[in-house]
């Protein structure tokens, strides 16, 4: 997907959205703290800076130590660490000192023996401190993985039915969110309505925009997107076999259809093996936090929420229409004030855990996604 430059602006009332709704304010969590070491600024559409593996802050506030870092919790971490070090063929010395000093030494000692690319966190889970080993996957961080489904409407006959069922299964298996299930959706329509009234559009341009908004809200596009997001199909695993058999039996009618069939066959693991949202773990945010105990503060003192994986990976209708363009710019504004999630494998370490094995599902997913973009472009441009 291509994108125009998004200009970064701030105000005391929130974050200014500088798409065609310029002057409107898209309110999120208020800014007001000092620079956050994890903030990333994405100035150009989908072009984003690299997300670095930042060190986890094991040094926490003394009040948290008093509440949660007990001898019992520390001994549990020691058991987990010694067990896991043994799996790696390493030795860990039991540290001495205050509870806080021992925790920090144990944390850094454990982190130092992990294989390259793996990091270490701790979270509060079920009344205990738990180690979390994580691995940030190789991922194109300067892209929104937005999957257009309008190509299905350019198809006909059996291949159209196969493609539609495949995408329905794909959306369900990977737990993609409904198209309108995002905080920006209503804002976009509010901005668009004001654009119709106040921007210097011709009458024909206003009519085109009104028709598009109607189609998204309750017309043909809305109906189609609701059909694609079909929970009844999500829960029926037998449809995977149906698609697999249909793809094997189908005889392509032209080279483009042959390419489409090949891409769908490559995608069969993504409707049967795993779920991309299983990798929605943010090692730089306390996503497994003490809030389960009724506390309402951020362990690491951050004021910004990351742009979660279900907003980075989603299905859309079209890559190039007004609604998608506005959605892109609003998401970009949020990313500019925080950072975007990257698929991350993680494992909670227990005294009997096996070795952490991240796998390569996100990498394969990414490669397959880029093939999709090229094929759907060809289909949508084919006369």
In short:
The protein is mainly alpha-helical. Helices cover 42% and strands 10% of the residues.
Secondary structure layout:
Blueprint: E1 10-11, E2 14-16, E3 25-26, H1 62-68, H2 71-87, H3 99-113, E4 118-125, E5 128-136, E6 145-148, H4 157-173, H5 185-198, H6 203-217, H7 220-228, H8 231-234, H9 238-249, H10 255-266, H11 309-312, E7 313-316, H12 322-336, E8 344-348, H13 361-381
Parallel strand pairs: 6-7
Antiparallel strand pairs: 1-2, 2-3, 4-5, 5-8
Helix pairs in contact: 2-3, 4-9, 5-6, 6-7, 10-13
Structure description:
It is a single chain. With 383 residues, the protein is mainly α. It folds into two domains: 168 residues, no CATH class; 144 residues, no CATH class. The chain is 42% helix and 10% strand. Helix 2 packs parallel to helix 3 and helix 5 runs antiparallel to helix 6. The radius of gyration is 24 Å and the shape is globular. The two termini are 21 Å apart.
